[in-house]
Design a protein that fits this description.
The protein has 71 residues and is an all-alpha fold. The chain contains one helix and no strands. The longest helix is centred in the middle third of the chain and has 37 residues, at 23-59. The chain has one helix at 23-59. The radius of gyration is 20 Å and the shape is elongated.
């Protein structure tokens, strides 16, 4: 069964040559990336959670259900 998250696009390796940056520039870029990810998760968080819940539900094996677990 093909995973629901598999890309239909062909993947190519991309070699990125990273420039040498000052400490301040590195921190500014990191802060920007964290902020962008926070905004993305705020906007799409429900979809992300639903995807992983559905993925988890599909991977559960009913035969292994041991009932009311204390954990």
């Amino acid at each position: 069964m093909k995973p629901p998250f598999a890309s239909t696009l062909r993947c190519r390796q991309v070699a990125l040559t990273m420039p040498i940056l000052s400490d301040e520039a590195v921190i500014q870029i990191q802060d920007f990336l964290h902020h962008a990810l926070d905004l993305f998760e705020d906007h799409c968080g429900e979809q992300i959670e639903n995807f992983y819940l559905a993925l988890h539900d599909r991977t559960q094996d009913g035969a292994l259900d041991l009932g009311d677990s204390p954990f």
